Model the fold of this input.
Amino acid sequence: MTDIGIFYFATEYGHNVVDVARDAEQRGFESLWLPEHTHIPVSRKTPYAGGARLPEEYAHTLDPFVALAAVATATKRIRLATGISLLIERDTITTAKTVATLDLLSNGRAIVGVGGGWNREEAEHHGVEWSRRFQKLEEQIDAIKIIWANEEAAFHGKHIHFDSIWSWPKPLQRPHPPIVLGGETDYTLRRVIKHCDGWLPRARNPETVVRGIARLNELAEEADRDPESISVNVFAPRPDAELIDRFKSMGVARIVLWLPPEDSDAVSQRLDGYTRFL
Done:
């Protein structure tokens, strides 16, 4: 069975994210995904991948973990996901505690979507060396899992290093909340197999996702990892019944539909329209 989630660009001017979550849960959607940008540099040297002017909401995103914590207090079942968290811009130890706290207080509903980001200046403002961001990301994922799994945790890598620490709470989910990685390259697929629990490809080009699933299974078998242990979470496909059915027939774990930061009436209309895919 394929779950249907909702991605919402939560801002201070769109429909309140807590109300969106309640509405989505009441309609039967499985998960709510929130993006992350700490800021958008005014320089705008990095071009927007969409090819046009950067949409306003990118500079207005709420902190996803704070927003998801608020959602957790107002909902019962819907999964709470980042799509994606820019982990390279975050402190590793602090993020381990943040996610563990969210998972504990939500009764085990956290999903951690992560990625390397696309805005070079934004990352560099956080001291990230752009050419090495994925090496850092890999170490962060591994270090966070070590913190979650052990009473005493230590990690010594090229980018992340700390001696033995105590850090509670631990996540409620075991062995840990699912970690899914965004991206569409062959390097992404190899990182998924080595470090993560799932893949989060954008469906801008559906055929890229289709080919990626086949390649992911091939690489998993080469690495002696069960492909069934890796979830495929298709992000923002066209809300087209034939395309959605195609992804469902391929056995993807989750399809995440896009919801822009509109007013309550517009959000409700989109959610009602998306219920046909449930």
